[in-house]
């Protein structure tokens, strides 16, 4: 499916030469492989490189049917965040007048933005390249890998015999079943980064992370964006206060939000693509030039022949236990094909678990569990939204007693000087303890700041320790110290205050 790489300019030619070389010749298969990995996205690459790099002389094979690097490099994190950086510059220019900087007649060269994206992507691609993995001692095969027996996988006419196997085939965008949508045509994350001309009117379906990121990005880059979402608020998996902040910002920037809507049909004519939807008991419609699907994912499992090897699966993907082992004990899975956390860093972390559980645990060196991970995630809007651990709703569902501490960025000096006061830091901790249960940050640098709290949670450091940690002044992460200080103040009960007052007088 390398036809997704359009236009075929010098940058995409460089990318293709790295991640699916047109002149690649598959190696002669080894007599038997210690590990065969199907899928060369983040999870598959980390498993293959990690296993090959152990210095144990293991025979590792890696199979990819399309582009090495998977979604992250080709149609996900790298291209989207490169575009987001360009869009953030526009946001800074818009706020320039508040900082005493006036910039008039700003010209957005959409073609140049997309060309830069392709250039950056091609620069990064060597790390995921076939040549690099071959140099690590991994046998790289291009084609559809499928299980043929309990210990063999075929790739075309080649047969790979394995001791252990890993499924890391990822997932793909799924379009909603709306009459006329397929006929009218639509974009997904797999095609939107091939645009070379800016669509004047763009509809984005889905108010999750992808939809919100791209709605703001394309609006800032000069599109008229309408975001349609069936829920009553954006980012439904996040704290409700997150939606309040983000919705206000998107509307202020010109994005038209249509919430609580049900799509009815799509039709196309010379005027464009007309989307008819049901809202507030009536039907309404909008006409746009392009439609981008920003919600829904389907696991890539159809061609694997999983029934042949007794691997169970459902609509959400391959079924695994806490050790990422499938119902066939010789076969493991990692990444989007089997996990609810569909992030690059989650796939990386899962791959490390797979390496340990496939290669080390058979020798009594212990197993690692997926449930032991403390997983942060970030939505890269402006401001960013970052979260780790439990939300207040999840803590309630689990019957936990907890307290919440909230610090507004409008009270943080660096946020004030930066003119970035829209947002907050919210930390929930176990009642009667400084144990951190979770946190949400909304700020321009939330993705960086959340790592402070993630590190504390992983290492069992409570708010008391964070309060003792000196933060450079002024930084926006000082909001975390303010939250920790707020916890410390709760320890000063009236009784403790009275005792402290008496001791002060005595001294």
Explain what this protein looks like in three dimensions:
By secondary structure, the chain is of the alpha/beta class. It folds into three domains: 2-173 and 298-372, FAD/NAD(P)-binding domain (3-Layer(bba) Sandwich), CATH 3.50.50; 181-295, FAD/NAD(P)-binding domain; 383-490, FAD/NAD-linked reductase, C-terminal dimerisation domain (Enolase-like, domain 1), CATH 3.30.390.30. 33% of the residues lie in helices and 24% in strands. The protein is built from 16 helices and 23 strands. It has helices at 10-19, 42-52, 70-75, 77-94, 110-124, 130-135, 181-184, 209-220, 240-252, 344-360, 392-397, 413-418, 446-458, 463-467, 478-490, 494-506, and strands at 33-38, 60-64, 138-142, 145-149, 152-155, 158-167, 171-173, 201-205, 224-228, 256-258, 262-269, 272-279, 282-288, 290-293, 297-299, 313-314, 317-318, 331-333, 376-379, 384-389, 402-408, 424-430, 436-443. Strands 1, 2, 3, 4, 5, 6 and 18 form a seven-stranded mixed sheet that branches. The protein has a five-stranded antiparallel sheet with strand order 19-20-23-22-21. It has a four-stranded parallel sheet with strand order 10-9-8-14. Helix 1 packs parallel to helix 5 and helix 2 packs parallel to helix 10.
């Amino acid at each position: 499916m390398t036809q997704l790489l359009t236009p075929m300019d010098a940058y995409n030619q460089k990318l293709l030469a790295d991640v699916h070389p047109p002149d690649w010749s598959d190696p002669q298969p080894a007599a038997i492989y210690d590990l065969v990995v199907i899928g060369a996205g983040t999870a598959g690459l980390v498993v293959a490189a990690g296993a090959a790099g152990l210095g144990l002389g293991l025979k590792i094979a890696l199979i990819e049917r399309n582009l090495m690097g998977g979604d992250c490099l080709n149609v996900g994190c790298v291209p989207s965040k490169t575009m987001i950086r360009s869009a953030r510059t526009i946001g800074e220019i818009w706020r320039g007048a508040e900082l005493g900087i006036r910039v008039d007649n700003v010209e957005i060269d959409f073609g140049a933005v997309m060309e830069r994206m392709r250039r950056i992507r091609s620069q990064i691609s060597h790390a995921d390249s076939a040549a690099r993995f071959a140099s690590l001692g991994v046998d790289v095969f291009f084609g559809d890998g499928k299980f043929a027996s309990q210990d063999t996988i075929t790739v075309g006419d080649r047969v790979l015999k394995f001791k252990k196997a890993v499924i890391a085939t990822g997932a793909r965008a799924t379009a909603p079943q709306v009459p006329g949508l397929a006929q009218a045509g639509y974009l997904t994350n797999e095609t939107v980064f091939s645009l070379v001309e800016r669509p004047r009117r763009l509809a984005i379906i889905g108010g999750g992370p992808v939809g919100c990121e791209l709605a703001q990005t394309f609006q800032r880059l000069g599109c008229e964006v309408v975001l349609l979402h069936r829920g009553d608020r954006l980012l439904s998996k996040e704290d409700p206060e997150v939606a309040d902040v983000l919705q206000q910002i998107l509307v202020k920037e010109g994005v038209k939000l249509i919430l609580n809507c049900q799509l009815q049909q799509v039709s196309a004519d010379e005027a464009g693509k007309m989307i008819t939807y049901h809202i507030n008991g009536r039907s309404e419609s909008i006409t746009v030039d392009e439609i981008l699907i920003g919600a829904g994912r389907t696991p890539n499992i159809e061609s694997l022949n999983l029934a042949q090897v007794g691997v169970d699966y459902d609509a959400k993907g391959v079924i695994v236990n806490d050790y990422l082992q499938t119902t066939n004990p010789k076969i493991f899975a990692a990444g989007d094909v089997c996990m609810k956390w569909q992030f690059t860093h989650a796939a990386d972390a899962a791959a490390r678990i797979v390496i340990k559980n496939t290669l080390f645990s058979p020798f009594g060196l212990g197993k690692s569990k997926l449930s032991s991970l403390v997983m942060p995630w970030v939505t890269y809007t402006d401001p960013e939204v970052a979260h780790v651990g439990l939300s207040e709703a999840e803590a309630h569902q689990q019957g936990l007693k907890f307290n919440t501490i909230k610090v507004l960025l409008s009270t943080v000096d660096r946020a004030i000087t930066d003119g970035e006061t829209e947002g907050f830091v919210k930390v929930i901790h176990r009642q009667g303890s400084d144990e951190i249960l979770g946190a949400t940050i909304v700020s321009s640098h939330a993705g960086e700041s959340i790592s402070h709290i993630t590190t504390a949670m992983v290492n069992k450091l409570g708010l008391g320790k964070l309060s003792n940690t000196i933060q450079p002044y002024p930084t926006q992460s000082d909001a975390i110290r303010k939250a920790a200080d707020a916890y410390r103040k709760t320890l000063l009960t009236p009784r403790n205050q009275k005792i402290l007052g008496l001791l002060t007088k005595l001294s």
